[in-house]
Amino acid sequence: MSSKEFFKSRYAALGWQFKETRTRQAIRLNVSTAKGKDIVQRLESIGVQLEKIYFLKTGYWVRNSTMSVGATAEYLLGLYSIQEAAAQIPATLFTKLGGKIVYDACAAPGGKTVQLADLMNNTGLIVASDIRKRRLTALTNHLERCGVSNALVYELDARRAQRLKLKFDRILIDAPCSGNFAADGNWFERRTIEDVERNAKLQKEILEQATSLLIENGEIVYSTCSLEPEENELNIDWAIRNLDLQVQEIDCFGQDGLVDIFGTRLDQSLKKCKRIWPGETQGFFVCKLKRGAG
Amino acid sequence: MKVILDFAARFDTKLSLNPDFVIKKDGRHFLLNRILRRFVLRDYYYAGVYLGKVRAGKFFPSFILLKRMAENKANSVTVDGKASWLFICGRDVFRKGILAVNGSPNKNDYALVLNEFNECLGFGIIVCNLDTIGKGTDVAVKNVSDIGDFLRRETRWSA
Q1: Which CATH superfamily is domain B75-152 in?
Q2: Which of A132, A190, A209, B50 has the most crowded CB, counting CB atoms within 10 A?
Q3: How far, in Å, CA of A268 to CA of A273, rounded?
């Protein structure tokens, strides 16, 4: 069986019939630097046709453009960022971000860090870290372009984040993952189930470390752009059994998380997670966890 | 920090920077606020507001610093849409593209370059007296640094 057939059969077993999908380019307005309506008007005046993403407040799909949306003056001025639609969801799920101490655990290239800063109106503190120094350059370029002023950035493995000697109100874990075929045309040739299992182990370690840094009643938003349950529902099921975390209701785009994975019954609260099969967006998984909420 | 204040002074503007909140690492200067100063660790990679870097004794300002200087009424020229586009592509500003001169029009002075929305696109050196603007195709402001640099950096990394 080819890799593609193998993964397709898994998706079918999870209740989704495979269909070829490619992601649509999307942007997110940085409303702390300018008014959203003004940015849209300016982009339309230079030939960028936008379509509001109905499930996001500040997200737009790029329907057509006479120029690269990554090379406009408005982009270079930090008025918007290029960010895939589903990837815009996680940062919006936290309650009351303003003034909080937030950890962005796997931050590079920084799209979500900038989004957090925008949602926080540059108040409070974001500690952003990534393990790869080369990717930090992209992250800090992004912060400078968008005028972010409330971030501290460290070259740091999220599994060693106790070194920061801080407790956090909110933690975003946009975990390193296997990705998905909608965002990567060669995904099926590149990926094996061993990759998935290796990533799942790494994600558990990051979750465990992050939980130890979370204040009582603090929130973790966990996301991946993987479709594989080992990196999603199975990891969250493990986390609620082992880390004093509870899954919280979230109101966002996506289907309920799965509670039956290849015959294994998971905790029913996993329905509160959101799983996004490729279609209008890339594949994605997101959930909100609270410590000590039970 | 003196290097930053001296740079701003070349635009006839005075920045108020509390030295207790400015930190420096590998020649890069950052401005913190109270919260960041409380929590920053010694091995940070980037912190707060990036102000610019010193390389070989020369100061290279960040675009956040230039933006703050623009808000602080530094010397500037406001340019039309076409000149804005050419400027962020790395080109100089022609006299005919200038809509307004805000502050010094004198040759050899530094000037921020603003677009029609008063957004700072970078800065340059005035290479001819700007008393008469809006005419002529000769270069008026020589490009020193522009926001197109964000794209050039990406190209450098991917090379």
Answers
A1: PUA domain (2.30.130.10)
A2: B50
A3: 10
Q: Tell me how close the Cα of A108 comes to any Cα of chain B, in angstroms.
A: 13
- Is the reported ipTM for this assembly greater than 0.90? yes
Superfamily of domain A85-291: Vaccinia Virus protein VP39 (3.40.50.150)
- Determine contact: B17 vs chain A, CB below 8 A: no
R_g over Cα of chain B: 17
At residue B133 the predicted structure's pLDDT band, cuts being 50, 70 and 90, is low
Q: Is there a catalytic annotation at residue A225?
A: yes
Which candidate in A35, A141, A156 is best for mutational testing of the B interface (most B CBs within 10 A)?
A141
Q: What is the mean pLDDT of chain A?
A: 95
Rounded to an integer, the average pLDDT of A68-89 is 97
Please state, in angstroms and rounded to a whole number, the distance separating the CA atoms of residues A113 and B57. Answer: 32
Tell me whether residues B46 and A138 touch, CB distance under 8 A. no
Q: Could you state, in order of their start, the residue ranges of all structural domains in chain A?
A: 24-83, 85-291
Does domain A24-83 bear CATH number 3.30.70.1170? Answer: yes
pLDDT of residue B101: 95
User: Which chain B residues are Cβ-neighbours of A151 within 8 angstroms?
Assistant: 46-48
Run of H or E including B43:
none
What pLDDT digit, counting tens, does each position of A80-120 carry? 999 999 999 999 999 999 999 999 999 999 999 999 999 99
User: Is B56 in the A-facing interface, judged by CB distances under 8 Å?
Assistant: no
For A289, residues 6+ apart whose C-beta sits below 8 A from its C-beta are: A219, A220, A221, A222, A236, A239, A240, A245, A246, A247, A248
